[in-house]
Every structure is written in structure tokens, then in C-alpha cells.
Amino acid sequence: MTTVEQVVLSAPASQRPQSRAWRKLKANKGALVGLAIITFFTVLALTAPLLPIADPNGTNWSAIRKAPSAAYWLGTDDIGRDILARMIWGAQASLLAGVLSVAIAVVIGVPFGLVSGYFGGWIDQIISRITEAFLAMPFLITAIALAAFLGPSLMNAMIAIGLSAMPVFIRLTRGQVLSVKNEDYVEGARSIGLRHYTIIKRYILPNVFAPILVQATLMIATAIIAEASLSFLGLGQQPPAPSWGSMLNVAKNYLSQAPWMAMWPGAAIFLVVIGFNLLGDGLRDALDPREA
Prior knowledge:
The chain is 71% helix and 0% strand. The chain has 11 helices and no strands.
């Protein structure tokens, strides 16, 4: 076996031992708190149909805007619906929007970033200029414009958020590819005649995956806020289906009479966003090869 082949075949898919990364993540108390928060809300969302809670769309005209009590733990809204039930069911829409919209951004953005960074030349110029044009526009403004164009619905909101976040992953992936494409194991792979697709799949992508994972985790928090903003504006989840943003849209009219209507969904958004940010920071530290 030649020296070049030994370099290529011995090049690991990742230079970060999983055990070391997991040990560092477990030692990060902030990351564990964030993971606990995310797990709690995820379990609530997944088990919502099994929990002994009220119908989230069921109205009770004799319990309009009732304060939190033993009967209604988080109170009721303007037409007597149980806020606790709507909070739990609304977690499904908010978390789903955050995860799927970022998945859309990753699935579309990462391949463009890989191609742009690896091949360079006129391909890189075209992709980079288009990406810069999108990045010049504020993220939320772009999402609102796309959601308004596509029409009000949760699915269209997720598509709008995903397309708006896509340039971030194109730029990040391109930069990471530029930093690894001239490494010895990549040059060795080229010298033995491996196809570009094989080199990108086997040697480039695994070594740029960690920063993409960290950015995706942090972007989920941004996407949840964006979905809440779109639902608040009537461009996301449509009534009577619950989501935290649409609940805030209703609650804004009763801030003085029933502040709990806004307090609980606002607190849920705050906690979930903090959770993803803490987890993202922990992953960044755990996957950083420069950290011992």
C-alpha cells in the first residue's frame, strides 16, 4: 500500500472522539439544563394525546378569562378554553416548526455550501452572490414576506422560515469546506483518483458536520421565535389550532384583564429558546477540537 493510500484510508471520519465529546457535554451544567428543558417540552408535545387534559379547542362560556385555579391550573382564555391544554398541544406546533424549518434549511443549504466551497470558481461566485443578497435582508422580514406570499398556514410558515435560514448554512458550510479541502487526506484522496462526490461524502462532510450541528441547534431557537412571530401576525398556525404565537396574538387584547393569557405562552417560548441556546453552546464547546 502506498503512502498516499495510507494517508487517505487512515483519515478518520471525525477527529473528535465521541466519548470525549459526550464526557465534556455531561460536564457542562448549562447544556444539561438546556437538554432537560428541551426533553420536558418534547415529552409533553409527544404525549399530549395521552395526557388527562381538557380539549384544547373546547369552550366554556361560564369560565371566560378565569384566573389560574384548581380547576384551571393556568387559567382560561377569552372564550373559556383551558390554557394548560392549549399550551401542551401548542408545543407540538412550535417545536415541529422549529425542527422542520431548520431541517429544510440544512437539507437545501448544506449541499449548496459544499459545492460552492469545494469547486470554487464561477460556481462559488454565483452561489456566494445569491447568498449575500439573501443575507443582506433581515431574517424575520424575509420570513414574513415569504409566508405572506405562500399563504397563512403552519406548513407554509415552516417553509418560509427554512428558506430564510438557508443562506446561513450555505455560508457556514462553504467556510468550513474551504478550511478542510486542502488538508493532506483530501489531497491524497484526489491523487488516487477518487470521484468528487466520494471525497465530499467521505472526507469533507464528516469533518464539517460539527459546526453545522451546533448552528442547527442554535437556529432551532431562532426558528421557534420566528414561528411565534408569524403566528402572532396570523401567518402561521391558524385558529382554532393552538400554537404559542397564536395564543399571544389573542392575549394581546387582554393584557390588563387577563395577563396570564400572555404570561404562560411567553414563558414557554422563553424557556424553550433558552434550552436550545444552552444546548447549542454546550455542543459547541464539546465538539471543539481545540478544547482539551
